[in-house]
Amino acid sequence: MEPYYTFHLELQSLNKKLLTQTALVEDRVRRAAHVINSRDEEELRSIILSDYEIDEMEIEIEEDCLKILALHQPVASDLRFIVTVIKVNNELERIADYAVNIAKRVEAISKSESRHLTGSIDFSEISEKVITMLNMSLDALVNRDADLARQVFLLDDDVDLYRNQVYHIIKDIIRKNPEHPGGLINTYLIARHLERIADRVTNISEEVIYLVEGVITRTIS
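RE: above sequence
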């Protein structure tokens, strides 16, 4: 088999694995966003216990990238693709970790005596915005769409603002109810995890721009 043909097949295989990883991560984030309100115990445990799946795939994808680099020494757009896969692969794994952390925070809140104090905090709108950002960045990656990737940057400030709002709300509640801080802090951490997912999604969009245009882009968060 010709080396170039083998290289082409390996790139195709790598791309398929990356697409599988993106689908898994997207599903994980959606499920984590859903349990913030539902607090479904079975779903919470499922999210937490399935963390290993994405971790294992991340290692497999990274090993494939390193193998291709060592055997084929790609250049130009092929090299940019491999570099992008390595970086996006890491971002996806971290996003999945934050989704699991959200499930852990929700589980802790469900057992907290202060859970009734945060009933007025609604995560549904900001969760949907984070999911929209994730969808946009992954669509931009699949379609090599730098313009769509740039649109993701415009939504990140809204997530940061919401995180700050939750921080001040929780701080006021703790001041008035200092006896049960655990559940309150975990509520803030949900906002923090959503904000960190948005940051990682922004990083993916930056890598898409690099892949398409060969330009390194860094946003200031």
